[in-house]
Here is the input.
Amino acid sequence: MSDLKEIYSLREKANKLEYNYLYNLEKQINSNTERIKNLEEVGVINPPDPPDPSPTTKIYGYGKDTKGGEGGRIIYVTNLNNSGEGSLRWAIDQSGKRTIKSKIDGRINVTETLAIENGEVTIDFEDRNITLSMEGTPNEFVLRISAPEVIVRFLTIRRSLQDVSSKNSDCVYIGRGHNIVLQNCSFSWASDELIGINPEWADRDTKGVYNVTIQDCLFGFTYGDKGILISGGASEISIIRPVFASTKTRTPAISTPTDRDYSFDCYFEVINPLIYDTSTGFTYQINKSNPEGTFYLNLIGGTEFQNEGGGYSRNMMTIKQPNLVYAYLEGNEGNFGTDWDLVQFGNGQSNINKPVPNEYRLSEPVDTPALAQGIEILKANELVEKLLPTSGNYLPQRDSEDERAINDIINKTQTYKDVNVFPY
Here is the structure.
């Protein structure tokens, strides 16, 4: 009998131990679940396995090896505030490898520049409609990149509703860094350039910005009439399938400042640009006499045309200064013909039919990465049909300003305004 009592006693102790164990385990699970929920609410969770590469995410050109925040944590934007926990600024200011996504849609109006100074970051709003603006703040960039390993995808920037009449009022400024990608972004309403790429120091022997790809982006109306400025010794820049809609000048402009040159050569590729309703257009020049470095450019598969009834004040491309700038052209079409028929030698309307001397024309393409990757080169007469559906920030849906710009291209109209309304 005593043995049986002892067995019952031991079983009762075991049951209590099991109950206490399960009770404490459940408490721990509930605590961890609540902790995970809190981390999700402020935007920090462990990353999932990276998705398989697809054609929509493949990057071409000099930025092809950019990793951004690959392999790091995911940070979610949870509000539209200018700053504070859960804001885009807060997410950008974090350190370490990270991918920034959003749980909300809408417009974020920033009061000062969003500065990416900690690299290894991917901003990816492919599944959300996020627009950045900067109302009421002149002389400030909306987004400044000053770090390596940065990817920005599916972001719309509308600088301000009206012209703020100031320099440095760009949508994006790249001042330092390498391995940088802007993909499927939409830009408009800047008072200076839509994108400025200009290293922030004057060291003639150092590349301050290099290995950059701008791919499948849509450039709209800008109060400053300026698209992309590449200057200051920036090199290894690829512009892949850009669409310029009533961006009057700098589509793009590749140049140097007038007061300095660089000891290294600079390389550029522009593949399948669609340039609509422009004036000065694409300019290519070294401004300093007797430079040491040389510029090399591939311009392939581009088209340029005007609005219905519009005239031409410049050709598609202008080589302003002949100091060691060389280019290879293939498959380009425009109002004045093909390839070198589309390039004038010297600025101004008086030089619109002045041909570029043969010594600046390359007979073979420059060895640039997009060509080495085997990128599909579309025919110039295919660009309207094939580029527009996936140009700019088209996912999950376009905003009304992009729709307006694309309809202008299709219908050869001009419907942009000097005073605008935010789509969000």
